[in-house]
Amino acid sequence: GEGAFDGASIGDKGALSWVSLIRQPDFVTPDAFSRVCEMVAAKRPALAGALASGDLRLVRFAEGPCAQVMHVGPYDDEPATIFALSAFIAEKGLVTDIAEGGESPEGHAATSAFDPEALLDALCADGAVPSVRLHHEIYLGDPRRTRPEKLRTVIRHPVRERRRGGADAI
User: Fold this and answer.
1) How many other β-carbons are positioned within 10 Å of the β-carbon of residue 97?
2) Is the backbone of residue 162 left (phi > 0), alpha (psi -120 to 50) or beta?
3) How far apart are CA 152 and CA 142, in angstroms?
4) Separation CA 30–CA 83 (nearest Å)
5) Measured distance CA(3)–CA(101) in Å, rounded
6) InterPro entries per the record (predicted)?
């Protein structure tokens, strides 16, 4: 949501916009996914609505070039780690390649209206790198069972080479 994250602090966690993705093995084809969804809907009618509305879907894309870092500690402390990741990216002569409205590490507030359906449609690139690239967090622990200082989160940012002539602002 607008102004939820300015690259340095999270002003209002309730205003953050996000989608949750779960990596699937390559053998999970669109047909296999559809068959499993039908079986789940039959056994769990409460999920049938989410399946029918498209809230659950198979999205296939490649990350493309990325930089990532392991953050250890509370989620509220992530901005300092994101800042360090941004410095690393710049040091390597790269720039972040995060879509407008994504969580930019360089102080650009998320300003675009968030439409999860449009975002998932843009991400679904049939195994290719999508036109929309975003900040990713991969949670390696359960916050209900892990002390905040021991939480581990992979923070990943898409990157690209800097354009010639210095046209990129980091």
Assistant:
1) 20
2) beta
3) 9
4) 38
5) 10
6) Reg_factor_effector_dom_sf
Whole-number Å distance between alpha carbons of 141 and 152: 6
- The continuous run of DSSP H or E covering 161 comes out as strand 152-161
In the numeric block, the tokens 């720039």 are attached to: 95
Report if pTM > 0.90: no
Q: What is the pLDDT of residues 19-49, one digit of tens each?
A: 788 889 989 999 999 899 889 889 988 888 8
Closest CA to 137 of 98, 92, 169, 163: 98
Task: Give the distance from CA 146 to its chain's centroid.
Answer: 22
Q: How far apart are the first and last CA of the chain?
A: 22
Q: What is the pLDDT of residue 122?
A: 78
Torsion angle, alpha carbons of 19, 133, 159, 127, to 10: 100
| Residue carrying structure tokens 């994250």 | 5
Strand 66-72 relative to strand 152-161: parallel, antiparallel, unpaired? antiparallel
